[in-house]
């Protein structure tokens, strides 16, 4: 069992949890993820590792309460335990000396881009970060991203904080100013990552994105997380989750992500109806 040591509400629908998982923390690196299961009747689902402390043996996760399982997870409190917490899984980010790197986080994507930006800065790169949300109320990790970056730009869709616009408009501003960018890392909604890729493709700027398709076992056995990269099927769990942004079949990715929307809505409605904390036997 893995105990929740700390729980923080970052936004009305976004939670942070610090989990005691020393074996996972000992080997964790930026870009990797865990798969957890809350109880015997819960589903397995992946969450990116937002932070880790090898000395204290902790893993930090950040999640948006979207479906049944994430909402159920959000109801747990400090001192409660999670039954299964497996990781670190996936390939870690390639942290090298690139030069000037732009790290872009949209919405919940700010959480996974944070440890990557921090590692890139620690590796000697100049890191310019762009984070965005629909409104100020939904923005989080401003302080953390500022510490992990040499420069931080904030945008909100409604202009309630930072500059009004999208993360892509902030990136366009950097490009228009003639900034030489050696690498772009973008994490967020698929349309956002796709838009970033289309901006950097004609300029030949190396760009990576982190994908979170439907995943079950996290070991490459089920094939549920397959994505088409450069015309070849890859498994996000073992080949990723980071891929060359210019090689991804985004149309296929979006279709696959929508495959179980109806089932997810039924599961969430059933959970609300039975009001038994997720035990839907």
Helical proportion, percent range = 25-40%
The structural class is alpha/beta
H-E order: EEHEEEHEEEHEHEEHEHEEEEHH
Question: Can you give the mean pLDDT?
Answer: 91
Span between termini: 22 Å
What count of domains describes the coordinates? 3
Which fold name corresponds to the CATH topology of the largest domain?
Rossmann fold
Strand order in the largest sheet: 6-1-2-5-4-3-7
Task: Name the CATH superfamily assignment of the largest domain.
Answer: Nucleotide-binding domain of ferredoxin-NADP reductase (FNR) module
* Low-pLDDT residue intervals, each spanning 5 or more residues: none
Inertia-based shape: globular
What descriptors fit this protein?
281 residues, alpha/beta, Elongation Factor Tu (Ef-tu), domain 3, Rossmann fold, 3 domains, 7-stranded antiparallel sheet, 7-stranded mixed sheet, globular
